[in-house]
Amino acid sequence: MRMPIRAASPSITRPSRGRTILLTRRLVVALGLAVLLLAPTGSVAHAATVQHTWRAAIGPAGVYGAATLRTYTNRTASLVTSARNLRARTWYHEGIYRGSCAVAGTQILRMPVFRTTSSGTARTTNYMTVTQAGRIRTAIAQHIRLSVRISGHCGNLLSVSSRAIPALSHIYVIVMENHEYGSIVGNASAPYINSLISRYGLATNYHAVSHPSEPNYLALFSGSTQGVSDDGVHPLAGRNLADQLAAKGKTWRVFAQNVPLGCYNGTTSSGGADGAGTYARKHEPAISFTNIRTSAVRCARITNFAHFDPAAANFEFIVPNMCNDMHDCSVATGDTWLKGFVPKILTFLSSHPAGVLILTWDEGSTSLGGGGKVATLVIGPRARAGYRSAIAHNHYSLLRTIENAWGLGCLNHTCQANDLREFFR
Length: 425
Fold this sequence. Notes:
Elements: H1 17-38, E1 50-57, E2 65-72, E3 77-83, E4 91-98, E5 107-115, E6 122-128, H2 130-141, E7 146-150, E8 153-160, E9 170-176, H3 191-199, E10 201-203, E11 206-207, H4 213-222, H5 241-247, E12 252-256, E13 268-270, E14 278-280, H6 290-293, H7 296-299, E15 302-303, E16 315-319, H8 331-351, E17 355-361, E18 376-379, E19 388-389, E20 393-394, H9 395-406
Parallel strand pairs: 9-16, 9-17, 10-19, 11-20, 12-15, 12-16
Antiparallel strand pairs: 1-2, 1-8, 2-3, 3-6, 4-5, 4-7, 7-8, 10-18, 13-14, 17-18
Helix pairs in contact: 4-9
């Protein structure tokens, strides 16, 4: 039998207006506390200014990713982690440690666990409360080395200089070939390069991003390897550094030794106005981009060394031939070539001190960091004399330095890369 629906019990009375207001206020406070408890701790850091930045490469040469610790002016802090090469769909513990994270009992802070994707990667941001950040600040103030650990993978947090990249009038990039850091730094066959190292800045933890050569050149010019994994001919449609420079009214030139003039699109060429030697297209990234190769005006900015002029443009990308870049010839041959060429730039910079030359190698002989550990020098009047930096950098860092010097924005992987600002004074 269907039971009749009862009316509300008359014993339940409505609260007074004053009591309603009081209950409402209590509810609002309770909800506010719940939001604070459930929200990422210290999320107010968004409204604060970054005070200090510390970075760690997780595992050898950052094989397992990188972590960035930031402290803020509102006394909070955050830890941003980009993990890779971990197990797929697995939960990982993360923590900050005093000294080496390999030593038991040194953990300062345990961060929330994170789960990797199907490819074994993850990106997570953890905000800290004022109390949590205080532990970090105390350790920093006591000059205690800090480390980040993702399960068994560790990395030391190194301070990133608060220096800004100075206003630069000219930037030159010279790319040499196929030598690991240890075969250049301290090598008696490279006396000129090592004299530059003693006078200027050296990145001691800098890596190429891939093998073979061409992907590294594309990374330097476009912030991405563009999916290229060989040294072939690849017409590319992506944006590149030349596009960024043009958008900001900055000029650019590419000087490639032994390249024929007139938008040459062949794979190699020998001789010509530069004399003996062989040009290789795989070492000259600008010609791979369709919006440069198909434009007579833009192609004209790719010329040989007979036309080299340190005053020709704001940015100059310099590619020696296959012998002078150490690809086909010895370290000593490349060193001798640099001894004859680099002073042309340094003489110009002596009267135009707001310029810098960056000398690097496209790849090393190992796969550390993706393409091997390579020597990278920051040279010029604005470079810190005899400076060494162990901060993890790669080719994307070099391009990011150019972008940040002129406010160009970022391209592809440079949007997550650091720059070389610690080398400038």
